[in-house]
């Protein structure tokens, strides 16, 4: 689907806010009949605009008390080094996001652990032992006044 109109954008905003709402409620919120709304949602799913539905989890209730973004610079800039690093972080439960980025480093990670001590363990005994890693910089999240990730 190349051309999303205003109604498609309203549907996407509503589903981003609450993907569990009924089609009837969604149709009412975006100003469509239920059948027209369902057809549009199905088209957005079929065309890959909507890839999946997810639950928004409460980190505190999951025992996550420490969140940080970590930049990682690699020692070598080969495809093999990148693939090895990506395989390693894919196996690490503390890594909630991994992004290959441009700039002075190659990766930006979102790390979630129970506390600072658990992060220190992960930083030293997991990330710090990877042979591809040359530089690590940690940015501790002190608060998140806006977080629209699902």
Fold topology:
Elements: H1 6-17, H2 23-30, H3 34-46, E1 66-74, H4 79-90, E2 95-100, E3 107-113, H5 116-125, E4 133-140
Antiparallel strand pairs: 1-3, 1-4, 2-3
- The succession of helices and strands, N to C, reads HHHEHEEHE
Mean pLDDT score, rounded?
95
| Total number of domains | 2
CATH homology superfamily name of the largest domain:
Lrp/AsnC effector binding domain/regulation of amino acid metabolism (RAM) domain
* Ends apart, CA distance between termini: 22 Å
| Count of separate DSSP helical elements | 5
* Overall outline: elongated
Helix content: 25-40%
Q: Quick one: how many beta strands? A: 4
The spatial strand order of the largest sheet comes to 2-3-1-4
Round the Cα radius of gyration to an integer and report it. 20 Å
Please outline what is shown here.
The protein is 37% helix and 20% strand.
What does this structure look like?
It is a single chain. A hairpin with a 6-residue loop joins strand 2 and strand 3. This protein has a 4-stranded antiparallel β-sheet with strand order 2-3-1-4. Helix 1 packs across helix 2 and helix 2 crosses helix 3. The chain has 2 domains: 41 residues, Arc Repressor Mutant, subunit A (Orthogonal Bundle); 75 residues, Alpha-Beta Plaits (2-Layer Sandwich), CATH 3.30.70. By secondary structure, the chain is of the alpha+beta class. The two termini are 22 Å apart. The mean pLDDT is 95. The chain has 5 helices and 4 strands.
